[in-house]
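In the design runs reported in the main text, the only information available to the sequence generator was the tokenized backbone. The following block is the verbatim input for one such run; it is reproduced so that readers can re-run the procedure and compare outputs position by position.
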């Protein structure tokens, strides 16, 4: 009997049967910016090298990312819109939210700055001036984390933007890089995350005009998909990845990422100590 049991356990281990959650693929639905910047691919590859566990990821704006995860087809999300994150968890789809990294948003605009916002420290005042002067502003308009942050700034400014000067990028779902390139083409103003700007600044006509307002901080978090709602998710794998992303090695990778190429980090680690 003991021999048969040992053979059965060995067979399950070799085929992945009872241990599939420890060795199977981990599927992430991620906001676009960290994927396009390269940090998500680097973290996924490094985790795979360390553990032998494959990590796959799909990218979309945060709103769409969370919508996709509500199907149970993903094990984890990486997102950056706290209001949407809290609803995802409150609705029972997510558990175990953890801060992973952050950067910030900046207001980009034409180098000649016809609206005169350069050097302003208050993003809401800058937005008020853009609206008053009807300077062309590009928005993603897609309920992504970037769009949600932009709407937070408009709301704080007491303005509901609209009119010919406020241009919705028709392909906003393609992400921040595409949106920035569109704004550059239009020589318009746009709220954008700094990592995207750093990857494009050498070829852009735009410039950073407003920055370092605390309102513009951009917090990126992970949330595991709720295994009680979706028993098929890779619970063990997602938990292992979550622990690694918030651990010393991954946080060190985040801290150093981009420094050699751009002269400054694209993201800053901010996982809570465990």
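Verbatim output:
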């Amino acid at each position: 009997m003991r021999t048969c049991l040992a053979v059965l356990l060995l067979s399950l281990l070799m085929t992945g049967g009872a241990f599939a959650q420890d060795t199977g693929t981990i599927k992430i639905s991620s906001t676009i910016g960290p994927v396009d910047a390269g940090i998500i691919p680097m973290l996924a590859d490094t985790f795979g090298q360390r553990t032998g566990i494959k990590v796959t990821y799909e990218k979309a704006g945060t709103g769409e990312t969370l919508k996709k995860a509500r199907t149970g087809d993903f094990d984890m999300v990486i997102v950056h819109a706290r209001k949407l994150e809290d609803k995802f968890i409150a609705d029972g789809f997510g558990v175990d939210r953890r801060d992973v990294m952050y950067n910030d948003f900046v207001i980009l605009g034409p180098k000649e700055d016809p609206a005169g916002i350069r050097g302003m420290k208050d993003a809401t005042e800058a937005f008020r001036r853009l609206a008053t002067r009807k300077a062309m502003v590009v928005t993603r308009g897609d309920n992504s984390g970037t769009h949600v942050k932009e709407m937070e700034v408009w709301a704080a400014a007491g303005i509901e933007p609209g009119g010919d000067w406020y241009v919705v990028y028709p392909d906003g779902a393609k992400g921040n890089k595409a949106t920035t390139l569109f704004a550059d083409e239009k020589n318009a103003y746009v709220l954008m995350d700094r990592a995207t700007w750093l990857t494009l600044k050498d070829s852009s006509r735009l410039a950073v005009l407003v920055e370092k307002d605390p309102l513009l901080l951009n917090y990126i978090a992970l949330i595991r998909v709720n295994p009680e709602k979706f028993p098929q998710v890779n619970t063990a794998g997602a938990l292992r990845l979550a622990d690694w992303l918030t651990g010393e090695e991954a946080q060190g990778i985040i801290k150093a990422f981009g420094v050699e190429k751009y002269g400054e980090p694209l993201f800053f680690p901010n996982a809570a100590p465990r």
